[in-house]
Amino acid sequence: MTWAPIPPAQRLRGRHALLTGAAGGMGLAVAQAYLQQGARCSVADLGAHATPELVALIAQHPDALHYLRSDVTQAAQIDALIDAAAARFGPVSTLFNNAAIFDMAPLLESDEAMYDRIFAVNVRGAFFVMQKVLAHMLRHGVRGGAVINMASQAGRRGEALVAHYCASKAALISYTQSAALAMAPHGIRVNGIAPGVVDTAMWTQVDALFARYENLPPGEKKRRVGAAVPLGRMGTPADICGAAVFLASDEAAYVTAQTLNVDGGNVMS
Asked: Which CATH number is associated with domain 10-196+236-259?
């Protein structure tokens, strides 16, 4: 097979991407990047209505972008989400599996309720979104399909205050590998992205929790983690887009079962 470059703005032409947890932050940034590369996008999140930023993006791309409310912890809502997405833009050929929540507490204080909340979204929800989209791809004969699961550098190591979240992201990395092996005979690739510390709205919550448990002034944890990154800063949602486009495109046709670190050098593997 001879490699031929694809025009930069057409790398995802003809693809229909379903993005969960994408009303803002990294998910919304990736949706915008996919649109720029010629994809049609179904964006899902918990809110009853699209965020103002997403509404503005829909206005720019009314024939290529729409918003769907969905709770990924509810199997029936996942089914309805996939059906609604396919009814608008045809079979889903790319999944950006991004819906997740964060919480933390000292190990001896973290309770069953916290465990259940985190695993319901980050593991159970992510797995069944992936499973149901993969089944949809097989039913519709999608070849060259791609799944990108959003893991985290937290899935590469444990942290004393973040046990459940770290474990949930480690589970998603493992599911990525298993699903990739199961789907390889069908020509469908499954990969992951492990971001490092990314400056999104969620970091306001993260910083406040670290301030509480590590007795820090507000903003100090965020400053410290940014300074500790080898490249010298926190990531931005835009920093995730290159990897997300690459893994969705034919340029990654021989890449599967991998979780790519996009973390400024925090993790080396």
From this structure: 3.40.50.720
